[in-house]
Structure formats: C-alpha cells, structure tokens
C-alpha cells in the first residue's frame, strides 16, 4: 500500500515538473485591417490586436515593418509577448502609385499580414491663389491599369497627355499623364475642388484663395494735457481697402464699431465701418496711457498724456498759506508761490510734492480758516520756510549761509577761548 502511494506521488510530481514542457505558446488567430488609398512614402500604423490564448511567453517576429508592444517603441527585432499584450504594426507605404507593401507579424506559430496600398494618383492642393482665376493642377501619371479605364471629373475639367481640357467622360490608359483645371473662388479664403475619378480610384484637387488685402492705414490723434483718471474717446477712423470681414482687436482699451457698445473682445469689421477707441487716463501727472487697435495686421495707437502738475496749479492758490495769512495777495503767499514755480515745479520730486500738496492742502486750509490760534501757529511754522525762500529767490542765500557758518565758527572759537581762560 505504501509502495503504491509513493508511486502515485512520484507520478504527480513528474507531471507538475514537466508542465512547462507542454506550455501553450500558440495564440488565437489575430487580424490586421489592410489599408488602401494610402499616400505614397507615408508611415502607416495598423489597428491594435490583443494577444490571447497563450499561457506562457511566446516568440514574436516581423518582416517588412516594425511592431510595438503595449504602446512601447517600435522595433524590428525578435522578442516575446504575453497573454493580453496589445500589438500594433507599422510600415512605410510605397513610393509608387497603386503599389501594395506588406508587414507580416508572427506570434508563436500564428501570423497575419498588414498590407497597405497606395493611391493610383494624388493631386497637390494649392493655397493663396488669386480670386476668380483658372488654376491647373500638377500632372499625375496613370499606373496599374491593364486596360483602358473610364475617367470622369466633377467641379472642373481635365486634360490627357496635354490635350484639350474637357469635362466629358473619357478613357485613360496606363502611362497617361493627366492634369486638372478649375476656377478659383471669387471670395477670399474660399476653397473649391475638382474630383477626378479613374475606374474606382479618385482624388480631389483643391485650391484656396488668398486672404483679403490689408486695410488702408489709419491714424488716431493723440491727446495731451488731459485730466487724471478720466475716460477719453479717440477720433473716429473709417475702415477702407478691404473686401471681406477683417479681424479687429485691441490692447489697453476698448473700441466701438459704428457707434455701438465699447468692447475689448476680438471681433470683425467691414469696409466702410467707423471705429472709435476709448481708454482711461492715468491717475498720475505727466503719464501716458495707450490703446492699440489692430485690424488685420494694420494698427495704430491712441495715446493720452495727463497734464503736468504746474499746468494745474500755476494760477492756483497756496491753500494753507492763503488761509494762514488771510489773502492770496499777501507778500508771504507770493514768496511761497514763487518758490513753488521756480524751484519745486522744475524737477520731478518737487512736482510730486506739489501734486500731493494740492490734493491734501484744501482740507487743511478749511480746517485752520476759522481758528485764529491755529492760524498763528501755522504762520510761525511757515516763517522759516518763507525766509529761506526769500533768500533763495533774491540770490542772497549763499552769502547768508556763509555768514552764518562763519558766525557759528567764530562763536565756537570764542567759547573755547573763554573756557580756556577759566
């Protein structure tokens, strides 16, 4: 009994160990879908097939092309695949018309061929052609025919071996050269086509007209000395020189067509449309803001420049000094105004200070206007500035400065001598 059990166990062990010798590496049948009417000299990729029916790695090889496993790199080298792998095949079509090339993939003992067949002929489409003009195609050479074959055309005319152009049906022979002719569209950027058919093969010769001519140049009149933070509208320009709708866009502002709403979105204009541009001036003095309008590549910029500080204050009062001294005609106010005009308004920092002062000065002037004690305090505070300004305006400031420095030095020297005597 024990001997029989041992024999049975040995047999089972042998079967288990010998199982790899009987691994199934023959996949289920797979099929590639052949392709026809393929352009010449073109890389063509097959449909994907999924490996099934194997329980161990199976050998894979290809002739006439390359293969890819699970989206990996294409290779022509032998390899292995596993159950569930996805395979695609790739090859380059023939450089000749009506010619078939094959790529045969073998997995285990099963294989299939991916075939691609080039077109009988192909026309080269043309772009940027003139409007309402007869356009002739490239010449194609008929190949792959054993007998005269019917030829027909729609949308144009054809010529065989440089004969007359006709639209009637005819016959083509192997080796014939054929050209197609058609009339381009009367509209810009429009495509027309003529389809030639030889037997069951056909191709369309397409021509696309050029884009519209660019519009005539246009000009906006820039504006100077404008108010701060204010919306300004340009002069109106009239679109001319185009024959079809043209794209319009703007940067830095908005535009309106024929008095419509202002927008910053891209749009279209037609010949004869009027366009105005609108933008917001800067919040700062002496600052330029721009809005550039573009119509089909032709553009111009509408610029507005805010006024200079002195243009807004030349005749304005010195608010705080006027409130403190009671009149804009007071001598102290005149001195401060002259100091402002001759020194502060002649440099950028000074103009910035004056701009700040004229934005905040009126409130301070209103505050001190009916407060005698505050007025007196402001007068005392302003007198050093008034004195300094008077000296600067009179030209005596350097002399007074030197005298002051010498006096200070003399005072220090005398003080030192006095302390030395003690």
Q: Could you outline the blueprint of secondary structure elements for this entry?
A:
Blueprint: H1 2-18, E1 35-38, E2 43-45, E3 49-50, E4 58-63, E5 66-69, E6 79-81, E7 86-92, E8 100-107, E9 110-118, E10 126-129, E11 134-136, E12 140-141, E13 149-154, E14 157-160, E15 170-172, E16 177-183, E17 191-198, E18 201-209, E19 223-226, E20 231-233, E21 237-238, E22 246-251, E23 254-257, E24 267-269, E25 274-280, E26 288-295, E27 298-306, H2 309-313, H3 319-325, H4 331-342, H5 348-368, H6 372-394, H7 397-421
Parallel strand pairs: 1-9, 10-18, 19-27
Antiparallel strand pairs: 2-7, 3-7, 4-6, 4-8, 5-7, 8-9, 11-16, 12-16, 13-15, 13-17, 14-16, 17-18, 20-25, 21-25, 22-24, 22-26, 23-25, 26-27
Helix pairs in contact: 3-5, 3-6, 4-6
Shape: elongated
Query: Average pLDDT across residues?
Result: 86
Q: In the residues, how many domains can be counted?
A: 4
Count of individual beta strands = 27
C-alpha Rg (nearest Å):
46 Å
What's the helix count? 7
Q: What is the class of the largest domain in the CATH system?
A: Mainly Beta
Short description:
The chain is of the alpha+beta class. Helices cover 26% and strands 33% of the residues.
